[in-house]
Amino acid sequence: MDEIFELLKYTLPALLVLLASVFTLRIIFRNEEKKRKLELQNSYKDTTLPLRLQAYERMILFLERISPESLVMRVARTDVTSSQMQSELISAVRIEFDHNLAQQVYLSSKAWEAVKIARANVIKLINDSASELKPEAAGMSLNKRLLEKMMELKSSPIEAAVEYLKKEVKELF
Q1: Using CA atoms, how far apart are residues 98 and 75, in angstroms rounded to an integer?
Q2: Are 63 and 118 within 8 A, CB to CB?
Q3: What is the pLDDT of residues 62-97, one digit of tens each?
Q4: Are the C-beta atoms of residues 159 and 122 closer than 8 Å to each other?
Q5: Where are the domains of the chain?
Q6: CA-CA distance, 61 to 55, in Å (whole number)?
């Protein structure tokens, strides 16, 4: 019996030290893993945040470029009919959209949806304005009607999208 107590006297403290060491090492390894994950997240943010901000900037620029006021100024031609002008205005919107299509990777789903809705609203406004004119009417009359319809609206077709994008950018900080 004394031999068992003598054996326990040496092995029990050794087992307690071993268990304490294992638990301590597990805690240390978990903390190190958390540190590595945090460092990785921070380096990820340092890389992607500028790209995301640039995407939001580009989408706001896109929305401003497809605003009817801007479109009319950029696409204004006196030698075309209203149907040709309608086609050119819609084409300008689509070209701008296609040029910025890749930016959706950096935007949230809701932000991208807001941009698509704004684009659709601008195209609808162009088509509605054109439908009120004869196809052979002067292209400038379509521009004039488009601007008149814009003034009749309570808010710009792109205003909501711009505001939503600005709100999301503020949330990034």
Answers
A1: 17
A2: yes
A3: 999 999 999 999 988 888 899 999 999 999 999 999
A4: no
A5: 50-172
A6: 10
